[in-house]
Backbone:
């Protein structure tokens, strides 16, 4: 009996501690025990793919790789068709619709004589005029056809696809090589603007519209409030704020002049 127990004990010990075996070299290397001999980026990518396709794996991968967004993890794990991908596709569709409506609204304002302002205004007005010309030509060659909003939308669609919304401007991202934000960031080949770095008073792709007036007005008011609180010794801060105020006031004046509405205010 005791002999049997002793044997069982030995057997159990061996079974419960396989890694303590004296022959580790007998274990065949596999993908779980050996990381591929690649760079760390490739290892992260492999780990992402291995984890992300398991139940709950996307979240695990996101946490492991410290991604801010699940969308990043999905892209990293090359997991198309996930819930996040569908959500992003839906958002993208809604953004396209919204951009087309905004472009249409600005085109209608252009027809009413309310023009955009800002460094990109001339480009946008030129484009609107080309749409005017195309519609006039169509009306001339086919006088019996009533032009519909849908035809105008079709003509505006491509330009609307370049629209990005800034806090205080519209960005018409038609040419990355002209994007001031990308030049400042040193990423001239990026396919999206860096809206957080937007300097719309200087970028040739930025326009200001009447809807942006309240933002610039509030900026001018708060700058005036800061200026009124500055002490006599804060000269450099005063110079900086006065430059900001002058810029806000200039943009406000341009919006008012281009739209033909609102007061022209002085500093
Ligand atoms: S600086 Fe502003 S307007 Fe110009 S490309 Fe960048 S985000 Fe667009």
Residues:
């Amino acid at each position: 009996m005791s002999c049997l127990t002793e044997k069982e004990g030995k057997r159990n010990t061996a079974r419960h501690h396989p890694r303590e075996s004296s022959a580790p070299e007998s274990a065949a290397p596999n993908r779980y025990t050996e990381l591929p001999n690649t760079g760390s980026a490739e290892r992260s990518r492999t780990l992402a793919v291995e984890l992300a396709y398991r139940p709950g794996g996307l979240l695990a991968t996101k946490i492991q790789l410290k991604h801010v967004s699940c969308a990043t993890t999905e892209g990293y794990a090359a997991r198309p068709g996930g819930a996040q991908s569908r959500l992003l596709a839906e958002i993208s569709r809604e953004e396209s619709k919204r951009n087309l409506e905004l472009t249409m609204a600005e085109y209608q304002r252009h027809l009413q004589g309310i023009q955009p302002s800002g460094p990109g205004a001339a480009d946008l007005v030129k484009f609107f005029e080309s749409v005017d010309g195309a519609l006039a030509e169509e009306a001339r060659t086919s006088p019996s056809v009533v032009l519909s909003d849908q035809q105008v939308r079709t003509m505006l669609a491509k330009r609307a696809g370049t629209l990005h919304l800034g806090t205080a401007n519209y960005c018409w991202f038609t040419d990355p090589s002209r994007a001031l934000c990308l030049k400042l960031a040193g990423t001239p080949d990026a396919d999206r603007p860096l809206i957080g770095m937007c300097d719309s008073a200087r970028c040739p792709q930025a326009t200001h519209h009447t809807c942006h007036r309240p933002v610039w007005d509030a900026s001018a008011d708060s700058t005036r409030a800061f200026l009124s609180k500055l002490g006599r010794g804060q000269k450099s801060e005063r110079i900086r704020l006065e430059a900001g105020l002058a810029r806000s006031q200039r943009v406000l004046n341009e919006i008012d002049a281009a739209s033909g509405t609102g007061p022209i205010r002085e500093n």
The pocket of iron/sulfur cluster is lined by residues 166, 171, 173, 179-181, 193-195, 198-200, 203, 205-206 (CB under 6 Å). Residues 44-79 form one domain. The chain has a mean pLDDT of 80. The chain has ten helices and three strands.
